[in-house]
Amino acid sequence: MNRAISILALPFLVVVAVLVISALYIVDVREKALVLRFGQVVEVREEPGLGLKVPFLDNVVKYDARILGLPTPPMEVTPLDDRRLVVDAFARWQITDVVQFRRAVGGGGIEFAQSRLEPIVTNAIRQVLGSVPSTTVLSDDRTSLMNRIRDLAREDAKDLGIRVIDLRLTRTDLPEQNLTATYARMRAEREREAADEIARGGEAAQRVRAAADRTVVELTSEARKRAEVVRGEADARRNAIYAEAFGRDPEFFAFTRSMMSYERSLQGENTSLVIQPQGEFFDYLRDDGSERARPAPPSAVRPAAGTGAGAEAQPETKGALEPGEVPAPTETNREGQPLGSNAGVTLTPLPETLASPPQEESVVPPSPAPAD
Q1: Which of 94, 102, 111 has its CA nearest to residue 62?
Q2: Does residue 120 sit in helix, strand or coil?
Q3: Which of 58, 57, 62, 59 is nearest to 46 (CA)?
Q4: Which among 168, 102, 96, 86 is positioned nearest to 134, based on CA atoms?
Q5: DSSP secondary-structure letter at 12?
Q6: d(C-alpha 107, C-alpha 87), whole Å
Q7: Under 8 Å CB-to-CB from 237, ≥6 apart: which residues?
């Protein structure tokens, strides 16, 4: 009989165990649960632990109680200055009202809630970014913009029983076609700046080159002017020497010039002259002109100071010349200054080799008396 009771009690125990298991449910610390009976919410369980329900009548629905993420796809927005931008964002949200969330999404769960939340976040981004210029969107400090988008999306997501905790703009960039045009414009600006720098450098180089050329011209002109002054004064001194020599002895001057002409004209191995021997060119080949020479007069002497008329004549103490010495010419320019002083040049005195050698006074013998 005990065996029969055991056999009958076993199915009962199995049924009781099944009923007990069906009446128990566990809520995890990361979850929130709703107990539904015929589709109606009969209990909300947000605390973790073990719970009871009516077997086969109640249904337990669990939702994730953690903070969830929602990345938005890239979208084009038009800021206040009509400059299109490509923007994507990342939102963090959490279920705050499980009952409201159940009524809003039904049996869709988290996936359906994200599909409902995505257009809310997208509309908030378009609305906020469309009210500011693109420079504000592209700036480094966009915290105020992201807070405005978060607050607007949070207000619209209240009906879903969720709360938008944070929203961040992950990328703000130009569209591909605008990006190419922007790069081209930036390249053109850099090339223009480089051309300006090159032009300024060329201008500075041209100024330096012009200043250097002007300095060269000025120095060359000044040197040429000084050279011409020195050359002119030297020519004047030479002409004065020639004139003085010509005045002393014209015959010797003509003789010297003829000798120089002979030297210049008879140079070379194949020199041939076809000329009449009676010409003036051959005068000094036929006659040396000694009979027409006029020797230099004797040195001038004057009586010494303080002597009487019968005192002996003495050579002058200062500036006196030795017999046969040729005085150095003292030519001056128009201002009465020594030659070469305007150009800063001191003329070299006449070399001794150019001085005329001392000449003895020629004694002309008296011509014999004519015969009677």
Answers
A1: 102
A2: helix
A3: 62
A4: 86
A5: H
A6: 32
A7: 329, 331, 339, 347
Q: Residue holding tokens 């030519």?
A: 331
DSSP annotation string for 38-74: TTEEEEEE-S-EEEE--TTTEEEEEEE-S-EEEEPPP
3 state SS of 303? strand
pLDDT digits (tens, 9 = 90+) for 236-274: 888 888 777 777 777 777 777 777 877 777 776 666 667
> Residue 298: what residue type?
P
What is the rounded CA–CA span in Å between residue 183 and residue 20?
A: 71
The closest alpha carbon to 240, from 338, 94, 129, 159, belongs to 338
DSSP result, 144-186:
HHHHHHHHHHHHHGGGGTEEEEEEEEEEEE--HHHHHHHHHHH
Quote the pTM value: 0.46
* 68-174: CATH topology: Tetrahydropterin Synthase; Chain A (3.30.479)
Query: Residue 332 gets which letter from DSSP?
Result: B
Query: Do 172 and 78 form a contact (C-beta atoms < 8 A)?
Result: no
Q: Would you say 94 and 69 are in contact if contact means Cβ atoms under 8 Å apart?
A: no
The tens digit of pLDDT for each residue in 267-309 reads 766 666 676 666 666 676 666 666 666 665 554 434 433 443 3
Query: Which among 35, 86, 95 has a CA at the least distance from the CA of 64?
Result: 95
Radius of gyration over alpha carbons of the chain, in Å? 65
Kindly report, as residue ranges, where domains of CATH 3.30.479.30 are found in the chain. Answer: 68-174
Token digits for 210? 């012009």
Q: Encode pLDDT of 68-91 as tens digits.
A: 999 998 888 888 888 888 888 999
